[in-house]
Design brief:
This protein is α+β, with helices and mostly antiparallel strands. The chain contains seven helices and twelve strands. The protein has three domains: 8-56, no CATH class; 60-93, no CATH class; 99-183. A hairpin with a 2-residue loop joins strand 5 and strand 6 (65-67). The radius of gyration is 23 Å and the shape is elongated.
Amino acid sequence: MSETTGQKLTNNSEVDTMNTSTIPNVKNSIFESGKWWYVGASDGARRSIEAHKRKNSNRMFVGGKYVPASHPLHTPGRFKTFESVAFASLDKYSTVAYGYVYIISNPAWEGWFKVGRAIDAYDRCSGYQTSSPMRDYAVEYCKYFDNRKNAEEKVHEQLANNKIEKRGEWFKASLKDIKSIVQNTEL
């Protein structure tokens, strides 16, 4: 194994003959028969590094997870969160209506719950984690809607009608009461 890259080398004689400036920055790569190869993590098949890079040049990964081309925000590349994807493909983001209305909590604000909307509630929650040294935000509940903006507005309106204390998108009430309102919201 190469100490600088972590890649596997088949034998020491190959190390002497290879040009170390051409070592690919590709995980699961090996040097065999005078050439660099990618060994598939799922199937164990060997492919040339060039073929592997070509295949991945059109793929999208968010938080290390593959996102299919059918996703409305699909943009080839590697992104930390869907929010960063949204900025990379802002024109697509503004046209996507569907998504989730979510309830997020943080034990630092006991009894308070954030009710918001996102294409992916868990991705949104992971974005909040960066502002908390304890990484203790949690998605308590989320429900899918064809129009997340209208659904969120309706939920906020119902919470206000129930005289629930509010600060922005944070509401002071029992999780059971807020969850019931979200569950029973229909468009």
